[in-house]
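Worked Example 4.2. Consider the chain below.
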Amino acid sequence: RLLNNTSARSTMKCIEKVGNAVDAAIVKFFLSLGRHVGNYPRRAIVVSIVITLICAGGFAQLETETRGEKLFVPQDTRAQEETIMFESYFPSLSRVEQILVQPSNSGDETVLTKERLAEAMQMHMAIETGISRTDGQEYTLETLCTVGGNACANSSATSEICKCRITSILGQWNYNPQELEDDNDILTTITQFGSQDDLNSILSGAVFDESSGQVLSAKAFSMTYFLDDRSFVEDGEEKDPISEAWEKDVFLDTVEPFKENYPSLFLNWLSERSFEDDGGSAVQGDLELVQYSYIAVFLFLGATLGNFRCGLGSRWTMAIAAIMLVGFSTVAGIGLSAFFQLIYSPVHSLLPFVLLGIGVDDAFVICNAFDQERKGQPRTRETNEQLLLRSSRALSRAGASITVTSFTDLVAFAISSSSGLPALASFSAYAAIVSDQPAHTYVDSCGASWLIIPVPVGVLPLAFLSYLFHGMSRL
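Applying the procedure from the previous section yields the following C-alpha cells:
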C-alpha cells in the first residue's frame, strides 16, 4: 500500500510539472507576443488583416446544402441506401400544390353551397388561366401539370385541363363555371364523385344521409394540383425555376388575397416553394438579429469596460475593436472551413451568435488583467515603455486562461463534429475552427495606446484536427 501511495504521488508530481511547464511556455509566448505587437502595432494590424483576407479566400469554395435528407438524415446507412435505390426506380414525378377550402364564417355548418363553390370555381379559373414567365417563355397550369387520370367527371370532355392530374370536387362540373351555375342539385352531383371513402378523401367532416348515402354537408374540401417535377440539384440546392415561378406568380398570387377576392371562403394552402420561402424569411430574420446583437454588445462593452463618457478611462474604442475582431475571426474561420470543403447549411446562421459571445468574453478577461497590472500607477504618469510592459504582462496573464478555454471549446466542438447527422457535424466543425481564432484587444483612454492581437496561433493544425474529427463521421 505504501508503494502504491508513493507511485501515485510520483505520478501527480510528474503531471504537475508538465502542467506548470505548459503554463510557463504559454505565459512566455504571450509575453513575447505582447511586446512584439506593442513595438510594431501597425505591422500586427496589417498582418492580421492579410491573414483574414487569405482565409476569406476559402469563400470561393463554399459548398452550401439545403436538402433536408442530406442534412438531418444519417448518411451511408442501410435505410438511406435503400431509399436511394427505390428513388432510382420510382423517382418523384410531381410537385404538389394544395388548398383547403372552408367557410369564412366559422359558425356555418357546411362549405357545400353554390355561392361558395362558385367562388372556389372562380379561384380555380384564375389558377388555370394564370401565366408565369421564365427565361422569356410563358407557362400555364396546362403546360406544367402532371398528365394522368381524368380530372373531369365527363370522360369525353375535350378541355385540356381535364388531362391534368387534379383532385377536387369541382371536377364534377368539368371545371366549367357555367355547368356549376346551371346545376340545381349540387349535392347529388357531388355524391356522384364516388363512394363515401372517396368523398371522405377530399371532404372534411362530411355528413351523409343514412338511407340514400347522399352527402348532406361538409366542413371543408381540398383542392390538389400536381405539377411535373422539373427539379435539378445545383450547389447543394434543389431548383425548379419554371415551377417555382408559376407557384409564386400564379398559385400564391391567387390564394393569398382570398379575403378580398373570395369573401365567403377561408383558405389554407401549401405550395412546394413554401418551405423555401419560410426558410429564407427565417434566415433573413437571423441576419437582422445578428446586426442588432452586435450593436447591443458594442453598447454593453463600451458602457461596462470603462467610463461611460469618452475620455480618460473610457474604452469605447476598445469595444469597436473587439466587435471588429470578432467579425474578422468569423470571416476568417468560415473561409478556412470552406477551404476544407465543409458544407454550409442554414443551421450555420447561428454561428455569429456563438462566436460573438466567445470573443467578447475574452475582451473582458484581457481588460481585467490589464487593470490589475496597473498596481496603483496612474495612467497619466506611465511612459510608453511602462504601458508596453503592462500590456505584455497583462496578455501573459490572460493568454493562458484564454488559450485553455479556447482549446476546450475547440475540443468540445471537434468531438461533436463526429456526429452522424451531417448538419450537426458540419456546424460543430465550423464552430471548432472559428472558435480557435483568438482575437484580443487592449484599449486605454478612448483610443490612446491600443494593441490589437488577432493572431490565429496554431489555427491551421488545430483546424486540421477538427477536419479529421469531422471526416471520421463519414466513415
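The first strand starts at residue 63 and ends at 64. Residues 8 and 14 are 10 Å apart (CA to CA). Compare this with Example 4.1 before moving on.
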